[in-house]
Amino acid sequence: MEKGPNLRRIFIFDNPRTWSHLFAKLFAQQPALQLLYHPFLPAALYGPERYQVKTKHCQEADDVQRYWGESEEFREWNVITYEAAFQKLMEATEGAEAEVVGKSIFCNEHLNALMRHDVMLDYLKPDMKMVGTTDYNPTCLPDDFLATLTPIVLIRHPALTIPSSWRTESNIKKLQIEDEDFWLLTTYKWSRLLFDHLHRNSAEGPAPVVVDAYDVVHNTDKLASMLCKKFDLDLQAVQQTWEKLPKEQWPDHSVVVGYTKDLLASNGVQRGSGVPLEDAFDIDAETVKWTAEFGPETALKMKKCVEAEMSDYEYLRSFKVAI
Q1: Tens digit of pLDDT per residue, the chain (323 long)?
Q2: Which InterPro entries has this protein been placed in (predicted)?
Q3: Which CATH code for domain 10-235+277-317?
């Protein structure tokens, strides 16, 4: 499955809450790119082949799944299969690359939506979570298509992604922090498996580019300049500010709004104030904050979740683009 000359097929592989939509927003006005968000998410989380039917989670989360299966709001998502999702991706990719359009796809997807189910279920076994990498394509993307992509692995500090995921997932999906579903969407195991596979096989395709979300927000100029040079993009078209979108123009789906409302309500990159967590990380200090926000029991469980992901995060971060 070949791509034409000078076509980038940029694909961002990420975890939830890694600022992937913000990252894509920076490049949304690139004349050479056509953006596509989450082609596999409906199949993975809402369709008939969704992985939640194979995982252990609390009754409340199961009730939410049952409600969504009967809801008119989810009717279109509930019938999407992985094959249909890949067909959508291929149509978008080939449509962008058509001679009359002459663009390249710029797609992002959460890795929990792309992973092969057998791989994820294997890693749910206690003795597997500490296993290192193996050399195979762990995703549902065909090998020949994966080899045509320009892969970006987007990461963010677990002490930021895991609490953020807990805020959204406990509210929207009613997950509990010990549910298997929560681990599947917060672990960096999938990013590491995919990175190692791509890295080992980079002679047959582009080497993976690792981007830390810290640089997306705090080193935006330097990161954008580097990526534009690397992918032959227009630096002048990178946007760090934009007009705030009126609420009446927000997506008409409650779940989409639930996950993206902060970006929808923004008018540019929000850098906050004070020292970023990554510059002065103290797990005990963060646990005190989590205790105040979530209660002591959840805070201790969250601390264990963060500590468990630090090794894979630091490993991936050691390969991040130099800024």
Answers
A1: 454 444 579 999 999 999 999 999 999 999 999 999 999 999 999 999 999 999 999 999 999 999 999 999 999 999 999 999 999 999 999 999 997 688 999 999 999 999 999 999 999 987 665 555 567 899 999 999 999 999 999 999 999 999 999 999 999 999 999 999 999 999 999 999 999 999 998 776 678 999 999 999 999 999 999 999 999 999 999 999 999 999 999 999 999 998 999 999 999 999 988 899 999 999 999 999 999 999 999 999 999 999 999 999 999 999 999 88
A2: P-loop_NTPase
A3: 3.40.50
Helices and strands (DSSP H and E) totals, the chain: 14, 5
3-state DSSP call for residue 149? coil
- Alpha carbon distances (Å) from 36 to 124, 212, 299: 30, 21, 36
